[in-house]
Amino acid sequence: MSLFSPPDATEYAPYYGTYVRLITADPLAALQTQPAELRRLLAGLTEEQAQFRYAAGKWSIKEMLVHMIDTERIFAYRALRISRGDTTALPGFEQDDYVPTSEADARPLASILHEYDTVRAATLSLLGSFSAAQLSRRGTASGQPVSVRAMSFIMAGHEAHHLHILQQRYLPLLAA
């Protein structure tokens, strides 16, 4: 199976299907183009606007960005361990516990975007290094089966999901 064909439904937990379905071609290509899309969407945003929440109890734009970074790091770590044949069941993480303790709103947006770029470069380097055999390896994360190939689609799809939320829920209200 090619990295560029969508993973079989047995390669990931059903709740990741939303992310996998958002990526219809090469996940590495999506991961390579997403930073430019993110920059386009955030162009001209002030520090104050980056702390905007579209509703009470929702994350700010900065918090959403740090969530995207944290999640990509965790997913890449899972892909690394599974690709190397590690059969240890990998734990889940609770995003709603990570976000408030990230202190994202206290950070400059430029700092968050620099971190984003650094993490993305590392992710692309890692995913691009995998052989076909490594991509097909399966492990367990959050109590569910997952392949390395599926992790690449999940990572790209997770970001696509959040870019959509940024476009649909945050930016229209900031423009108003």
TrEMBL record:
<dbReference type="InterPro" id="IPR024775">
    <property type="entry name" value="DinB-like"/>
</dbReference>
<protein>
    <submittedName>
        <fullName>DinB superfamily protein</fullName>
    </submittedName>
</protein>
<dbReference type="Pfam" id="PF12867">
    <property type="entry name" value="DinB_2"/>
</dbReference>
<feature type="domain" description="DinB-like">
    <location>
        <begin position="31"/>
        <end position="165"/>
    </location>
</feature>
<dbReference type="InterPro" id="IPR034660">
    <property type="entry name" value="DinB/YfiT-like"/>
</dbReference>
